[in-house]
Amino acid sequence: MTAPAETPRVIPPAELPQKVSTKKPKGRSDLSSALAFLSPTLIVLSAFVFFPVVFSFYLSFHSWNMFSSTESFVGVGNYSSIVQNPEFWSVLKNTAVYTLGTVPLNMVISLGIAYFLNKKLAGKKLLRTAFFAPVVMSSVAAAVIWRWVYEPSFGLLNYGLSWFGIPAVNWLNNPTSAMFALIVMGVWKTFGFNMVLFSAGLQGIPEHYYEAAQIDGAGKWKQFWNITVPLLSPTTFFVLVMSVIGSFQVFDTVYVLTSGGPLGSTKVLVFYLYEQAFKFFDMGYASAVAYLLFAVVFILTMLQMKYLRGSIHYSS
Amino acid sequence: MTTDRSPLLQRFSVLLLAALIAGGCSGKDGDAGGKVTVAFWHSCVSSTVPALNELIAKFEEEHPGIRIKAQYVPTGDALIQKLITSVQSKTAPDISWIHANFLQSIIDADAIYKMDDFIHSADSLSAADLADIFPPLMEEAKWRGTLYSLPMEATGIGLLYNKELFRNAGLDPERGPRDWAELRAYAKKLTIDKNGDGKIDQFGFFVPAFPASGPLGDWMVWQFYPFLFQAGGNNINGEQTQVLYNSQAGVEALTLWKEIYHENKLSSFGIDYEPAFASKQLAMALDGPWNLPRWKQIPGLDWMVAPMPKGPAKQSTIVGGEYLAIFKQSAHPKEAWTFVKWMVRPDVQALWSMKSGYLPIRHAVRLIKEYNDYLDAHPALKTYVDQMDFAQVPNPIDYDALKISRHLAEAIERATVGNADPRAVLEESAARSNALLKASSGKATR
Question: In this structure, what CATH number is given to the domain that contains residue A235?
Answer without folding.
Answer: 1.10.3720.10
